[in-house]
Design brief:
With about 325 residues, the chain is of the alpha+beta class. The protein contains 9 helices and 15 strands. It has 3 domains: about 130 residues, Helix Hairpins; about 70 residues, HSP40/DNAj peptide-binding domain; about 90 residues, HSP40/DNAj peptide-binding domain. Strands 8-9-15-12 form a 4-stranded mixed β-sheet. A 3-stranded mixed β-sheet has the order 3-7-6. Strand 1 and strand 2 form a beta hairpin. The relative contact order is 0.08.
């Protein structure tokens, strides 16, 4: 199997963030849902998923870098091809190789974890089963990505997901899920080996932007246009929320940028619920209004006031 660094096109010095970013980019590009029927790309997707299962796990990556596991995640075979017993540059008998080792003692890059049988099995990838084969191994996790509307993420929903196997599942998206959050589907990954349990499917949620709602933490922000007369005289206006529209009072003399808080109208996650923040924005008529211009021209002469004092001298 190819070196996982080469599979992802990374250097051995790559940071955790670089590994994650590269994998996400490749996973989106090579996902089977985007390339239906293309076996080569499906194989490539499996390869990058297997590589990430090692490099994306701090402990597994360290083991690989030390040569303790190979690119498939199995225990490495450091003495493969070398004979035991006399001659040919072999290592001699098992007893000769490990004579004098104590549990936990380091000799080169190997550590004795227990008796001779344990280290023998670890170094040569042998299990305790009949015939000396490896024991059960868990299947690889597979990363999927779903793109969902903003309101479906805020309110919670069900989304259909097509697995590599062709199986279709309904995935429950919890209310308040965040962009990039992963949902684990137990046992829906690759099959295990030698009777090992299957891996999991990791579903990464991507949230589509909304035309006027914006999420900040658990609060929902929205900019709401108001007319000049509503700003000056005050008014009752209807504002959309994650649920039904609500009636809101615009106070007299409201300037652009004034914020109104609607308690409990934000994202609900468990027992906690955010608020909705309404930013008022005064919008003038698209066409000029002669009567309004004449009025304000007269009004300005006797009611001028300073609004940019704080900007002077800076």
């Amino acid at each position: 199997m190819k070196n996982p660094y080469q599979t992802l096109g990374l250097k051995k010095s790559a940071s955790v963030a670089e590994i994650k970013k590269t994998y996400r980019r490749l996973a989106k590009k090579l996902h089977p849902d985007r390339n239906p029927g293309d076996r080569k790309i499906a194989t490539r997707f499996k390869q990058i998923s297997a590589a990430y299962s090692i490099l994306g796990d701090k402990k597994q990556r360290a083991k690989f870098d030390r040569g303790e596991i190979d690119a498939s995640g199995a225990a490495a075979r450091p003495f493969a091809g070398a004979g035991f017993g006399g001659g040919g540059g072999g290592f001699g008998s098992f007893e000769e190789v490990f004579r004098g080792f104590k549990p936990g003692q380091r000799r080169g890059k190997f550590r004795m974890q227990g008796g001779g049988d344990d280290i023998f099995a670890e170094l040569f990838g042998l299990g305790r089963g009949r015939g000396g084969h490896r024991g059960p191994r868990r299947g690889q996790d597979i990363l999927y990505s779903v793109s969902i509307p903003f309101l479906d993420a805020a309110r919670g929903s069900q989304q259909k997901l097509r697995l590599e196997t062709g199986k279709t599942l309904k995935v429950r998206i919890p209310a308040g899920v965040r962009d990039g959050q992963q949902i684990r589907l137990s046992g829906q990954g690759q099959k295990g080996a030698a009777g090992g349990r299957p891996g999991d499917a990791l579903v990464e949620v991507r949230i589509q932007p909304h035309p006027f709602f914006e999420r900040q933490g658990d609060d929902i922000h929205i900019a709401v246009p108001i007319t000049l007369d509503e700003a000056v005289l005050g008014a009752k206006i209807s504002i959309p929320t994650l649920g039904k529209p609500v009636s809101v009072t615009v106070p007299k003399g409201s300037s652009s940028g004034r914020k109104l808080r609607l308690k409990g109208k934000g994202i609900k996650r468990g027992k906690a619920t955010g608020d909705q923040i309404v930013s008022l924005r005064i919008v003038l008529p698209k066409k000029g209004d002669r009567e309004l211009e004449d009025f304000l021209g007269t009004w300005r002469r006797s009611h001028a006031y300073e609004v940019r004092k704080d900007l002077k001298g800076r």
